[in-house]
Design a protein that fits this description.
By secondary structure, the chain is of the alpha+beta class. It has two domains: 203 residues, BirA Bifunctional Protein, domain 2, CATH 3.30.930; 42 residues, SH3 type barrels, CATH 2.30.30.100. Helices cover 27% and strands 33% of the residues. The protein has a seven-stranded mixed beta sheet. It has a five-stranded antiparallel beta sheet with strand order 11-10-9-8-12, with no helix packed on it. Helix 1 packs parallel to helix 5, helix 3 packs across helix 6 and helix 5 crosses helix 6. It is globular. It binds biotin (BTN). Biotin (BTN) binds next to helix 2, strand 3, strand 6 and strand 7.
């Protein structure tokens, strides 16, 4: 059971989550907000579903989450400036908000993995899928979909990064209402940084990215590149040092070694 009243007491935002849709079952909360016929049109609308029948991850993967145990939700952003590097910063703001919320509430040490995985003790506890709708060249809507493993303690399937949950790492049962409100409270604040202090987002993100300076491989489709993870640039792209050359990486799965 998700206690909507308790969640509302904890929510301290102006816009994000003020229009809140709570569903028992949907295909995907991202699709719910992206589907034009649903007419969700208010900036900051949040859809939380107890179960997703077709939960999606990055690169056509499936996001598995047991019913009622975790948080699978999406946030609609519209009527905003999405130009330049802003979309990438929304991506970093999403994983940073999840990291800060978990650190604040449960004192767990979070690592962030480029482009936007949230890890505890090297295992994945949350993932983010950003999708958008454009009209011509203009991005009209951005949906940031967030899946957090909260109280689930066994995971079936084959995973690139082994999964974990906050309960598994902290040993405690987690109040999902408190966590979701904290993520949304922080997300709204960090979104404001995109206008006020965008470099702070990257600085705080990089401070949690353990792979910088390490030997890595980046896999994109059939192609694997090897090098040193030199940095993340101002736009959010990974800079890979290969010999004397610096390459900009836009997409890919990063592994150590
Ligand atoms: C990833 O790490 O591959 C991204 C996972 C994103 C999962 C969330 S759950 C809520 C939202 N709805 C979806 O279908 N996917 C995202």
């Amino acid at each position: 059971m998700f206690d909507l009243e308790f969640f509302d007491i904890k929510l301290d935002t102006e816009v994000v989550g003020r229009n809140f849709i709570y569903a028992d079952e949907v295909d995907s909360t991202n699709s719910t907000l992206l589907n034009k016929s649903n007419k969700y049109d208010k900036d900051g609308t949040v859809v939380l579903s107890e179960k997703q029948n077709e939960g999606r991850g990055r690169k056509d993967s499936v996001w598995y989450s047991n019913k009622g145990m975790n948080l699978t939700f999406s946030i609609l952003l519209k009527d905003r400036d999405f130009s330049g590097r802003r979309i990438n910063l929304i991506n970093f703001a999403s994983s940073l908000a999840v990291a800060l919320a978990i650190e604040n509430l449960y004192q767990l040490k979070i690592a962030l993995k480029w482009p936007n995985d949230v890890l505890i003790n090297g295992k994945k506890t949350a993932g983010i899928l950003i999708e958008s709708i454009s009209a011509g060249k203009k991005i009209e809507k951005v949906v940031t979909g967030i899946g957090i493993n909260v109280n689930q303690t066994s995971f079936q399937g084959i995973f690139k990064i082994p999964p974990t949950s906050i309960k598994e790492e902290s040993g405690n049962n987690i109040e999902r209402e408190v966590l979701l409100a904290e993520v949304l409270n922080i997300f709204e604040e960090v979104l404001q940084w995109i206008d006020d202090k965008p470099d702070e987002i990257l600085k705080d993100w990089k401070a949690r990215c353990r792979m910088i300076g390490e030997k890595i491989s980046v896999t994109e489709g059939d192609q694997v590149r090897y090098g040193i993870f030199d940095d993340i640039d101002d736009e959010g792209f990974l800079i890979l040092k290969t010999g004397r050359k610096y390459e900009k990486i836009y997409f890919g799965d990063v592994s150590i070694g």
